[in-house]
From TrEMBL, chain A:
Keywords, alphabetical: Cell membrane, Membrane, Transmembrane, Transmembrane helix
Species whose genome carries this gene: Sphingobacterium tenebrionis
One of the Pfam families matching this protein, by short name: COX4_pro
Record field: transmembrane: 24-45, 57-80, 86-107
Membrane topology designation: Multi-pass membrane protein
InterPro entries: Cyt_c_oxidase_su4_prok (IPR005171)
Predominant subcellular localization, coarse grouping: membrane
Cellular localization per UniProt: Cell membrane
Name listed for the protein in its UniProt record: Cytochrome C oxidase subunit IV family protein
Length: 124, 245
């Protein structure tokens, strides 16, 4: 038990170095700025001024911005960046399966889209 | 009795041979991470299925047309504004959660209580907004297994019921898929937020009861914090795939 307490207190100490108040607020402003940028693209460039069209390009921009936001939340708010590299790898490598799944489902969806477009099987 | 230590009881050396924590993390925190990784798989599966459906259908509901009201202010013509407020509330409550964790590192009970209260308030506001959004869509005729054209038999009536939500051609199937997936995914997320609020309230009352003060560590705040940030993380993806794309 005393050993366990030692780990816990050491853990708490190590974490104190990672995020102080100043850093927390700077991460918050990064997240806010990225969200504001998404709104600027969606409401401004696409909806209001019509500079960009809805489509692959805009979607890719949205997904990249989303992944950057996800990185900031996981790395700083969830503190993963300051953990041991072995733990970072353990928690992130499994998402290779998700990437594989996305590719599979896009291929599948593309194929279905082809068949729906050429010979509609649904009445409406 | 004896002062000699048997071979088995000796504290082992080396990072991976026991006697030392190679990740330097407390057990409960590692388990919380592993739970969140598995939960991320569940949400990924939901969202990937949504994406695959949308990709497969020749036409899909236009997010700008279905989400364009601000409850109590504008009935239509304001896409993204209400969900923007919801996103801001959730990011803000994530920040107050990190501030609670940071206060826990300094063993400052008062600050932990203050930031936990703000976090709980943010969570309740988010769930409230979600409820308003749901009831709005429900009034328009969307629900599990239902869309505004359900029950209509005349082709023209179906097109008329659905055309306000589509930019391209109208599809009953696409509207139904959208309806089911929207309520399933945001419902599952809202369920997570509700559980998170409950956990936050439990941790808040433990803080008020000096439980962590006696333990000497506020690790439990960190574990609940991990869960709360995960809920925020999922919302970032839900927001992109439902409201932006």
């Amino acid at each position: 038990m005393s050993h366990h307490d030692h780990i816990a207190s050491h853990d708490a100490h190590a974490h104190g170095e990672g995020m102080d108040k100043k850093r927390i607020w700077s991460v918050f402003f990064v997240l806010l700025a990225l969200t504001a940028l998404e709104f600027l693209i969606a409401l401004g460039f696409v909806h209001h001024w019509g500079i960009l069209q809805k489509g692959t390009l805009v979607n890719v921009i949205y997904i990249i911005l989303t992944l950057v936001k996800a990185f900031y939340i996981v790395a700083f708010f969830m503190h993963l960046k300051f953990e041991k590299s072995g733990f970072i790898i353990t928690c992130s490598i499994v998402f290779l399966f998700i990437i594989y799944f996305i590719i599979l489902m896009l291929i599948e969806g593309g194929h279905l889209n082809d068949s729906f477009t050429h010979q509609p099987i649904f009445p409406h | 009795m004896s002062t000699t230590v048997s071979q088995l009881d000796k504290v082992k050396e080396g990072p991976w041979s026991g006697g030392k924590s190679p990740w330097n993390l407390e057990y409960g925190k590692i388990m919380m991470w592993f739970f969140l990784v598995s939960d991320a798989f569940t949400f990924s599966a939901f969202l990937i299925y949504y994406g695959a459906q949308k990709f497969a259908q020749p036409t899909w509901i236009d997010a700008d047309k279905i989400f364009q009201s601000i409850p109590g202010i504008a009935e239509s013509g304001q896409p993204l504004v209400f969900v923007g407020i919801m996103t801001f509330i959730l990011i803000m409550s994530s920040v107050t959660m990190v501030l609670a964790v940071e206060a826990g590192h300094r063993n400052s009970k008062q600050e932990v209580v203050k930031w936990m209260l703000w976090t709980i308030l943010g969570g309740l506001m988010f769930v409230g907004c979600q409820a308003i959004e749901w009831s709005h869509l429900h009034h328009q005729g969307f629900w599990f297994g239902r869309n505004p054209a359900t029950g209509l038999t005349d082709d023209n009536a179906i097109v008329q019921a659905l055309s306000p939500y589509f930019t391209k051609e109208v599809s009953y199937t696409a509207a139904l898929q959208f309806s089911n997936l929207f309520f399933t995914i945001t419902g599952f997320h809202g369920f997570h937020v509700s559980i998170g609020i409950l956990l936050n309230i439990i941790v808040l009352s433990m803080t008020l009861n000096n439980t962590f003060e006696r333990r000497g560590t506020y690790l439990m705040v960190e574990k609940v914090g991990l869960y709360w940030h995960f809920v925020d993380l999922v919302w970032v993806f839900v927001f992109t795939f439902f409201y932006l794309i």
